[in-house]
Write a structure and sequence with these properties.
The chain has 107 residues and is mainly α. Helix content is 25%, strand content 0%. It contains five helices and no strands. The radius of gyration is 19 Å and the shape is elongated. The model has no long low-confidence stretch (mean pLDDT 79).
Length: 107
């Protein structure tokens, strides 16, 4: 049982709680921005959720928190679309061309 809402560490030793990242903290007590009952850093380590911008936060969490925009709604942060070449940015605005209306090339 818990004391004041804190799950004792010995719950892990007894197999009552998972500790996927060996943080000596039950997984249910760690941040889980994706709602899948697995801490974000474990999602990344287990390749459950990508982290294309390498900020130690699953991309889906960056998007849902508004940390990274996704103007073309492809579920990939815009900065990753640009870095991978999936989207062009001819005018170097930091916004994919398909989102800022830019067409053409810069002379």
């Amino acid at each position: 049982t818990s004391l004041h809402g804190v799950i004792p560490i010995w719950d892990n030793a007894r197999g009552r709680s998972s500790d996927c990242n060996l943080a000596e903290l039950p997984d249910e007590c760690e941040p889980d921005c994706s709602g899948n009952s697995v801490p974000g850093d474990c999602d990344i380590a287990e390749a459950v959720g990508p982290d294309c911008n390498i900020n130690a936060v699953p991309d889906e969490c960056d998007l849902s928190a508004g940390v990274s925009p996704d103007c073309n709604t492809n579920s990939v942060p815009d900065e990753c679309d640009l870095a991978s070449g999936q989207s062009a940015d001819a005018n170097q605005s930091g916004i994919p061309d398909e989102c800022d209306g830019f067409r053409g090339t810069i002379p």
